[in-house]
Amino acid sequence: MVVPEGAGMRPDNAKHRPPGRQRKPLTSRIIVAHVDQRIRLLRKQLGMSQTDLGERIGVRFQQVQKHENGADRVSASTLYEIACALGAPVTFFFEGLPPPATAASADLSPAMRANYAASAEGMRLLDCFARLPARVRGDAVRLLEGVFDSASAASGHLRPSWPNDL
Length: 166
Known about the structure:
CATH class of the largest domain: Mainly Alpha
Number of domains: 2
Low-confidence stretches: 1-15, 101-105
Structural class: mainly alpha
Mean pLDDT: 78
Radius of gyration: 20 Å
Number of strands: 0
Shape: elongated
Oligomer: single chain
């Protein structure tokens, strides 16, 4: 029997997902990514290696790496252990997230802005902006504001899209 090429194949983005299982909503993935970033941020601020953190919570450094990179989700119990090991309240890892009632708001909190600025895309944008001559920067900001206003008017309202690739 000849099977047509690609028949029965799942799309690449679903190859690790059991059949019938849906992806988590974007909001959930944003929260997970935020928690992962906060773990990495605090660990680095304390000058602690992934190995040191792993030893304190009873896992290998590779597992800490998977948590920080989003390859594995952090369970509630592991997050509690990480918080204890880093000397922070569990709530620290959720600081900067908008409250559920305003999650669709177009306004970013200062912590979310800082997280964006620290992302690869944010760093690239800041580097490009910093290289602009001072007399052009105001024009660039007005251009971006105009693009946002146009897109906002066309769609009715815009939500922050970062990180949109999670």
